[in-house]
Design goal:
single chain; 3 helices; STM4215-like; seven-stranded mixed beta sheet; 21% helix; 7 strands; 154 residues; alpha+beta
Length: 154
């Protein structure tokens, strides 16, 4: 991932949101359980994100699904997938809705990395699912970020 990574910008926006942070706990080393690409594994005393039945913790995985450049412009419409895990389906849906609110119909802004985000929105509502490995309830959210493909000067 580069400094202008839409994934890192999305993770930063989720970590900065108070509603999301009220649901997603910190891990034992003080990081919010909002990750890029895959869940964190066991590290030291922390059991990681993916756990067995009865030990589920809320966490969010952010991944880039598509990033086509817009012809003739220096922009890209990036499709971001959010996988919102929780202990129950209602809790997963609540977390997904909190995450969706971070991005839905948001105007232009500049990420700390200087990535220009011209607009963002969510596509539909959360889709409930179950993790195939752990059986943990999760909800999928699709977000579109309209971004620059070069740094915005500040």
């Amino acid at each position: 991932m580069t400094l202008l990574s839409p994934i890192l910008a999305a993770v930063a926006e989720l970590v900065a949101d108070t509603a999301v942070c009220a649901i997603v706990p910190l891990d034992t080393i003080g990081n919010r359980r909002i990750r890029s690409v895959e869940p964190a594994g066991k590290l030291g005393l922390d059991l990681g994100d993916s756990r067995g039945v009865g030990f589920y913790v809320p966490f969010v995985i952010v991944s880039q699904l598509d990033a086509p450049w817009q012809a003739g412009t220096a922009t890209s419409a990036v499709a971001i997938g959010l996988r919102c895990y929780a202990a129950s389906y209602p809790a997963a849906e609540a977390l997904a809705l909190a995450c969706a609110a971070v991005f839905h119909r948001k105007a232009g802004r500049i990420a700390a990395s200087r990535l220009g985000i011209y607009s963002s929105h969510t596509e539909g509502g959360p889709t409930l699912d179950k993790d195939p490995d752990t059986g943990q309830p999760l909800a999928h959210v699709l977000v579109t970020l309209n971004v620059s493909i070069q740094a915005i000067p500040v």
